[in-house]
Every structure is written in structure tokens, then in C-alpha cells.
Inverse folding.
């Protein structure tokens, strides 16, 4: 009878270790895949630092440079300037992919409004070419973002996570899907 109790305990302990080991291993593997996919946002697909985050930063820089030109023709308190500065700050402060996407849309509208206003003003000859160049650069970075592989990489991870057994194990171990931009 004593051996039966020891065998039952040993079998239970072995099953428990297998289950715990499977959960820990699954969590670590899924988190490694998630981390690799999430890094594409900041590091780019090649890991060279050229990803969506760098393009968003460059859009913010072009927006600020447009403000520098606008300050020569509009007051600092002008809503067009303030809207760009606030949107740029919102983009700088964004802490998630979703926050970045929302801030980028707000910045896109604010920069377009400022560009349109500058385009309708008589600018000094030395400043006349800058708004168009800055806006072209701003839009080009937006186009680059729209073709960035982050969304495809994140969607592929999310698809893996939704499948079996990853979906089941992911839910048990707290692995969440990635946000799309």
C-alpha cells in the first residue's frame, strides 16, 4: 500500500513537471517570437534601426522644420503652429504602436493645414522652396511607413498565436497579440 502511494505521488509529480515545463517553454518560445516581431517596429526588418519608428521620427523632424519656416510669417501662438507642435509632442510621447499610429494621423492633419497656409502666403524668396520640400519629405516618410513590413510581421505573429496549440498555450501563459500600426 505504501508503494502505491509513492508511485501515485511520483506519477503526479512527473505529470505536473511536464505540464509546468510545457507552459514555461511555450511562454518563452512565444515571447521570443513576439519580441522578434515587435522589434521590426523600432529596428526594422533587417535589425539596422531603419523601421517605422525612425520614419516617424523623421516625419516629426520635417514637421518641426516646417514650423521653423512658419514662425517667420505666423505668430508663435497661431493655432496652425501650436497644432503641429502638440501633435509632434504627442508622437514623441507615444509609448505603443497604437499611440504612434494615432499621433501620426494627428500630425499628418496638422502639417497639411500648416503647409496649405504657408502655400497661400507670399514667402520671401529664400523661404519659398522650403515648405514644398519639407512637405514632400514628410509625405514620402508616410509613404515609406505604409509599405513598412512591420504590419505583415505582426500579423504573421498574431496568426501563429491564434493557431493551435499556440493560441491555447498563449492564453494560458499570458502572451498577447501585437498591435498593428
Amino acid at each position: 500500500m505504501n508503494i502505491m502511494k509513492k508511485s501515485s505521488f511520483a506519477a503526479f509529480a512527473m505529470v505536473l513537471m511536464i505540464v509546468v515545463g510545457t507552459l514555461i517553454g511555450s511562454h518563452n518560445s512565444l515571447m521570443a517570437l513576439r519580441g522578434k516581431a515587435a522589434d521590426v517596429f523600432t529596428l526594422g526588418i533587417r535589425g539596422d534601426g531603419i523601421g517605422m519608428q525612425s520614419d516617424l521620427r523623421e516625419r516629426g523632424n520635417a514637421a518641426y522644420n516646417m514650423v521653423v519656416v512658419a514662425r517667420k510669417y505666423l505668430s508663435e501662438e497661431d493655432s496652425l503652429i501650436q497644432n503641429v507642435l502638440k501633435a509632434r509632442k504627442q508622437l514623441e510621447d507615444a509609448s505603443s504602436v497604437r499611440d504612434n499610429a494615432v499621433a501620426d494621423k494627428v500630425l499628418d492633419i496638422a502639417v497639411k493645414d500648416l503647409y496649405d497656409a504657408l502655400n497661400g502666403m507670399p514667402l520671401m524668396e529664400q523661404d519659398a522652396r522650403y515648405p514644398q520640400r519639407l512637405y514632400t519629405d514628410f509625405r514620402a516618410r508616410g509613404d515609406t511607413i505604409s509599405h513598412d513590413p512591420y504590419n505583415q510581421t505582426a500579423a504573421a505573429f498574431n496568426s501563429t498565436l491564434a493557431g493551435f496549440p499556440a493560441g491555447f498555450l498563449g492564453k494560458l501563459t499570458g502572451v498577447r497579440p501585437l498591435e498593428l500600426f
Remarks:
- The CA atoms of residues 22 and 58 lie 44 Å apart.
- The chain has two domains: 2-45+151-173, 53-147.
- The two ends are 62 Å apart (CA to CA).
